[in-house]
């Protein structure tokens, strides 16, 4: 299934496994790429740049097809050594990087110098246009349905995707709310050049999270997420559990980030994924969990979605036959 995005990156199918903290490891990324999609290793899941280089090497042993690395750049009191992670990426020969968080502009010169194609993830058309001006090769645009941070505009994909298509000249992929071939077909019709999925790939055999988390996503419906940090204008969509509900109550009662800081610590969320304790902390999941009903191999997810999309598009065409 060829689109501008597949042609740009030399992949077979316009299906991307987006970068996910604690999830984007070698086995998952390689399985997606081996099936013809684009797998993504998450840089900051690795504790040091050296560990990232090792993880990239592991991925390369599992597939000789293109894969990328996610580098999420956020303001922090004690920021990671981003320059060293960038260096590890290019020294490892990776030529595709997914950036997220802050503007990619400060990093574009370095990546351009080393022949790296940058896909920037953003949540609004205005940020996508700004990223295009900064020189990124492609954009991944997140609708309000997505897991993690959907921004503060609350624009769902049905409006955001065609709005982005009208505003951008570079290839872009749609993210948030995609799990099957119907979603891929819809994204293509709306003007996107592919789709990016996180929650769907969390529920794959190669996903390194606990089986209990995968079962919970399969059992959950589209009603089983909650939005936290709204009053702080740092909205995050997470799975509904006792911790996320407690955070919501505290902030609704006038609490500040300090009052919930211990509850939302990343170390607690990591315990959810590693130990399967669903109430150990907050963990991200998108509305699309209501469309996820199994835990197949990641490669099967890619090929199934492409096969379904072709069938959906063919069936839809017959509805317009005189």
UniProtKB/TrEMBL annotation:
SUPFAM superfamilies: Inosine monophosphate dehydrogenase (IMPDH) (SSF51412). This is Nitronate monooxygenase. InterPro entries: Aldolase_TIM, NMO. Keywords: Flavoprotein, FMN, Monooxygenase, Oxidoreductase. It comes from the Bacteria. It holds the Pfam family NMO. GO terms for molecular function: nitronate monooxygenase activity.
């Amino acid at each position: 299934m060829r689109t501008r995005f597949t042609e740009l990156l030399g992949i077979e199918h316009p299906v991307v496994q987006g970068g996910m903290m604690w999830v984007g490891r070698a086995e998952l990324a390689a399985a997606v790429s081996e099936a013809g999609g684009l797998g993504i290793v998450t840089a900051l899941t690795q504790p040091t740049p050296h560990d990232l280089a090792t993880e990239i090497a592991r991925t390369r042993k599992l597939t000789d097809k293109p894969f990328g690395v996610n580098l999420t750049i956020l303001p922090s009191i004690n920021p990671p050594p981003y320059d060293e992670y960038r260096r590890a990426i290019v020294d490892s020969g990776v030529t595709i990087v997914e950036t997220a968080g802050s503007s990619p502009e400060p990093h574009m010169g370095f990546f351009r110098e080393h022949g790296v194609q940058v896909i920037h993830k953003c949540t609004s058309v205005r940020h996508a246009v700004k990223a295009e001006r900064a020189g990124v090769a492609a954009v991944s645009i997140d609708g309000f349905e997505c897991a993690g941070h959907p921004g503060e505009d609350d624009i769902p994909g049905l409006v955001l995707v065609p709005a982005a298509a009208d505003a951008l000249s570079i290839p872009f992929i749609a993210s948030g709310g995609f799990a099957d071939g119907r979603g891929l077909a819809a994204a293509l019709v709306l003007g996107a050049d592919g789709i990016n999925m996180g929650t769907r790939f969390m529920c794959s055999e190669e996903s390194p999270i606990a089986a209990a988390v995968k079962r919970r996503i399969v059992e959950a419906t589209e009603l089983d997420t909650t939005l936290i940090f709204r009053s702080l204008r740092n909205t995050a969509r997470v799975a509904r559990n006792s911790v996320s509900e407690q955070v919501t109550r505290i902030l609704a009662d006038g609490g500040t980030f300090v009052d919930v800081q211990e509850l939302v610590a990343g170390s607690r969320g990591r315990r959810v994924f590693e130990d399967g304790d669903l109430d150990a902390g907050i963990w991200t999941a998108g509305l699309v969990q209501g469309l996820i009903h199994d835990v197949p191999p990641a490669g099967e997810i890619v090929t199934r979605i492409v096969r379904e999309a072709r069938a959906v598009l063919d069936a839809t065409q017959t509805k317009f036959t005189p």
